[in-house]
Amino acid sequence: MSAPTALITGGTSGIGKATAELLHSRGYQVVVTGQNPDSIAAAEKSLPEGIVVLRADARSLADTDRVVEQIRERFGALDVLFLNAGIVRGGPIEAFDEATFDDMVDVNFKGQFFTLQKALPLLNDGGSIIFTIGIGVTRGIAGGSVTAATRGALLALVPSLAVELAPRRIRVNAVSPGPIETPIWAKHGLPPEALEETLEATAARVPLGRLGTGEEVAEVVTFLASDAAGYVTGENITVGGGAGLSV
Q: Can you give the pLDDT at residue 62?
């Protein structure tokens, strides 16, 4: 029997990369996608040998077609689809113009939806689909309305897809990271000192008193991918150290 195969979108850094490394260590064949040339180059150097790194822009359906075809040719089928790619843009609602709004919809919702649609014929019966959502969708973060809305659209898919794909024994779940220490924080454009202050203040508001790690989220994703979660479908698991539970 060949090893199970997993596709991770947005898998060249952060949570996606940590999940790729963990799944690989557990015997999976892993394919990751990313669109940033620097992240792709770094991933190719640092990921374990055997993990396939493919360039694909979540906005491009042609890129998605190419990824799916490469998986078909190389592995024949998929067992796990981790739809993790996404972008974050913070700010008050009046700060968003149409181009930024459309870009977030294209990456966070449209891109993941069509990746699922196009990869589904490759997914073996009994497989697992996992979406990355985010704690802001259900617990609220000031300035996070558009990110939450575009990620929340994915969460709205989960229960219906879980029912729709149940005859094939395909499980559909979501993971919602809270404050996790990943490279995404640096993309907010803050000076180093301000970024450090932001991270410290964020950690202080978490009941467990710290930021989480990509590896901790990866453990939950790997559980949802495994037979140990064989009776879990239609669920959203928060990995946030208790963030948002108290005021």
A: 96
The number of domains in the chain is 1
Cα-based angle 206, 207, 213 (whole degrees, multiple of 5): 55
Three-state DSSP state, 18 = helix
- Would residue 91 be called left, alpha or beta, if left means φ above 0 and alpha means ψ between -120 and 50 degrees? left
Mind listing the pLDDT tens digit for each residue in 69-101? Answer: 999 999 999 999 999 999 888 788 888 889 999
* Threshold 0.90, pTM exceeds: yes
What CATH number did the domain enclosing 27 receive? Answer: 3.40.50.720
Q: How confident is the model at residue 181 (pLDDT cuts 50, 70, 90)?
A: confident
- CA–CA separation, 51 and 98 (whole Å): 37
- The H helix count followed by the E strand count for the chain is 9, 9
